UniProtKB/TrEMBL annotation:
Pfam family, one: PK_Tyr_Ser-Thr
Originating organism: Musa acuminata subsp. malaccensis (Wild banana)
Domain of life, source organism: Eukaryota
Residues of the Protein kinase domain: 1-232
UniProt GO MF annotations: ATP binding; protein serine/threonine kinase activity
InterPro entries listed in its UniProt record: Kinase-like_dom_sf (IPR011009), Prot_kinase_dom (IPR000719), Ser-Thr/Tyr_kinase_cat_dom (IPR001245), Ser/Thr_kinase_AS (IPR008271)
Identification of the protein by name: Protein kinase domain-containing protein
GO CC annotation, single: plasma membrane
Entry-linked SUPFAM superfamilies: Protein kinase-like (PK-like)
Length: 276
């Protein structure tokens, strides 16, 4: 993306541009320092991550979604990030999320355009929208797909491409375990059961809608923000305490969980292709 476009983008959940310079046709861009590193580092066991609780993860999801919503709806012309991933979501000293790295971003020339045609598919393995990969036609729903993968990372604590103890894609891994309707097989064990199960199920439901193979059936980022805020409200109500006796060891045991699990649309989700 042109530096002139970057300089006009201002949102609390986007990493701020400090300055840029051009020397011998090489553009250097300087962003604000973000103290707590990337979300991937904060989720990775190898990096000593995993200390984020569920409410913190939900807030990070909402803040990231808000940043993407601004790029898609608040910018003129609209901006597609094209490389949404947990290593491009940085956390400040208050653990507030900020989207970084706009090097692959594309803008629509006019608001009336439905997509941007590209000569080559770029992005990060595990996050690339299958529809974009097949058609070379990029739109905001490609970012929505990538964000769906990010949501699954927040739930599971796993990276998008799995290599140990088994290989595959996080979408496949989640789908296989959801068929057993056992949510404990999907949720990051480092959360130690400290979450409302209905909140978790809702986020998985949102993620599955984001990674639908048909981009037209994916939600907009505005809809995702609204749904994630509803999930946070569910989690907040649990933290205020439940008086019906179903709160055991930090987990709200809802009798509707099996019904909710059945709503998850897994038939239209597949793992993302590798970028070229």
């Amino acid at each position: 993306m042109q530096a002139s476009v970057l300089s006009r983008i201002h949102h609390r959940n986007l990493v701020g541009l400090v300055g840029f310079c051009k020397d011998n046709k090489v553009l250097g861009v300087v962003y604000e320092y973000v103290a707590q590193g990337s979300l991937r580092d904060n989720l990775s066991e190898k990096a000593g991550g995993g200390g984020l609780n569920w409410r913190q993860r939900l807030r990070i999801a909402i803040e990231t979604a808000s940043g993407l919503e601004y790029l898609h709806k608040g910018c003129r012309p609209p901006v597609i990030h094209r490389d949404v991933k947990t290593s491009n979501i940085l956390l400040d000293h208050n653990l507030e999320a900020k989207i970084a790295d706009f090097g692959l971003s594309k803008t629509f020339q006019t608001d009336a355009n439905t997509h941007v045609s590209t000569d080559v598919v770029v992005g990060t393995p595990g996050y690339v929208d299958p529809e974009y990969h097949n058609t070379y036609q990029l739109n905001e729903k490609s970012d929505v797909y990538s964000f769906g993968v990010v949501l699954l990372e927040l739930v599971t604590g796993l990276p998008p491409v799995l290599r140990y103890p088994e290989s595959g894609h996080i979408v496949q891994w989640v789908r296989q375990r959801l068929t057993k309707a056992d949510i404990s097989e999907v949720v990051d064990s480092r959360l130690e059961g400290q979450y409302d199960i209905n909140s978790i199920v809702k986020v998985i439901d949102i993620a599955m809608s984001c990674i639908n193979t048909d981009g037209s059936k994916r939600p907009t980022m505005s809809e995702v923000v609204m749904q994630l805020k509803e999930s946070l409200q569910v989690e907040a109500s649990q933290e205020r305490g439940n008086s019906n006796g179903n709160f055991v060891e930090g987990v709200y045991k809802s009798p509707s969980v099996s019904v909710e699990m059945g709503r998850l649309d897994m038939a239209n989700t597949v793992s993302g292709p590798m970028a070229r």
